[in-house]
Amino acid sequence: MELFDVYPLLDINIVKGSGCKVWDDKGTEYLDLYGGHAVISIGHSHPHYINKVNEQLNKLGFYSNSVINTMQQKLASRLGKICGYDDYQLFLINSGAEANENALKLASFTNGRTRVLAASKAFHGRTSLAVEATDNPKIIAPINANNHVTYLPLNDIMAWKRELEKGDVCACIIECIQGVGGIRLADAGFAQKLQKACREHGAVLICDEIQCGYGRSGKFFAHQWLGIRPDIITVAKGIANGFPMGALLISPQFKPQYGQLGTTFGGNHLACSAALAVLDVMEDENLVENARETGDYLIGRLKELQKENSHITDVRGRGLMIGIELDIPHKHVREKLVYELHCFTGCASTNILRLLPPLCFTKEMADEFIIRLKKALG
């Protein structure tokens, strides 16, 4: 049997990681500003994380949600206090797509509606309704194209209000910093007016914090820069530093019913041990604050470089979620960074480099990246 060939792969086999660095099978060291697509939050192979996961694995890796799991309760309590949502409810699943799928399902259960508003350039996942809310027709199969979703320009509040006024909108789902969309930021004025309009017209406001959340923006959630409190918050990626996990943070206005939502693997003992270890390290090492300070520093350095290098047309982002827009395709720049200068970055569109390093990234590493990026841009 061969692998189903759907990934365009870099010709590199990564076998080891530590902090913000990874190594291939030939022993070459790389600076990691990709973090496995924003999944690595506290750094590769953090010793506390390894110890806690190993400790749990030696006790119990998995049992089902048919019994009490006090680790889930501990995670809910700690996460609520750390992120400022201790009055919300936590539902644990396995991935970001599953988080958005369940958020939209819960919204529809609550108001009985079926229409969703999503932003242009949105990416919310690859499962049934999540992919329909994703603004990319290439990945929406005919069986998923069910006309539930209307795409609207991010920050165009009048367009969103016009649709909400029709009275049939189930939910509005937004990334407060779009990832795949190219590090496009929602405005505070837009977000606050959208929240108000959702409440007026009985729609549920969902903030997809799967990539931009969990400290990456320099606050625990990116929407906290905008002065709003969504009805449902979805998270994944950084929640367990590489262990597959996702979650919904659900407003107290939603009343759970037995059987309403469910999952086999979600919230298992091993996943909870990973997620609790992540919170330990985030608190002990002040990683949210580090993301803000180091991110500000890196954005400043990139804007200085923009003045020197005409290939950089824009630098935008918050914390350690940064987009570098180029006047040339990113492909050759990114390949030079990886193969010649040994530095991983992400990308978006055809001309945007996307930086998503672990939250333990340092100013010294930022300086080193600037040196390598200068060489890559020639």
UniProtKB/TrEMBL annotation:
It comes from the Bacteria. Keywords: Aminotransferase, Pyridoxal phosphate, Transferase. One of its GO terms (molecular function) is transaminase activity. The keyword rRNA-binding does not apply. The keyword Transferase applies. Its cofactor is pyridoxal 5'-phosphate. SUPFAM superfamilies: PLP-dependent transferases. Belongs to the class-III pyridoxal-phosphate-dependent aminotransferase family. This is Aminotransferase class III-fold pyridoxal phosphate-dependent enzyme. It comes from Xylanibacter caecicola.
